[in-house]
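Homework help board

Subject: predicted structure for assignment chain

Our instructor gave us this sequence and asked us to write out the predicted structure in token form, then describe one feature. I got the tokens but I'm not sure how to describe them. Can anyone check?
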Amino acid sequence: MQIVVDERNRLLHVDLSGFKSTVNLSHDYPVFQYASGVKPSKAVSLGCLWALPVGNWAKQATWNANGTIMVFGGLSNGDRCMHTPRTLPIPDGVTFS
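My token output:
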């Protein structure tokens, strides 16, 4: 699991893990919380990172300034989220520390 910040080329390489929900959620929630490593100066949209094989669902995420990865929308107990690695541009005005 990693997010590689390529500042020279202004790219983010996002490769996180899949997960299985063990609770019912009807709102946005942090899935991963990093205690160390670089963090963005402001929230960065990561787009659709997980596919749910049941029902053709996809889950979008945001990398927050505090390091958490927030997933949008609810999940049901037992939903299996399969991750697809992505490379995306670093938004203008975002720095890392």
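Reply (TA_rk): Your tokens look well-formed. For the description, you could write something like this. The first strand starts at residue 2 and ends at 6. That's the kind of observation they're looking for.
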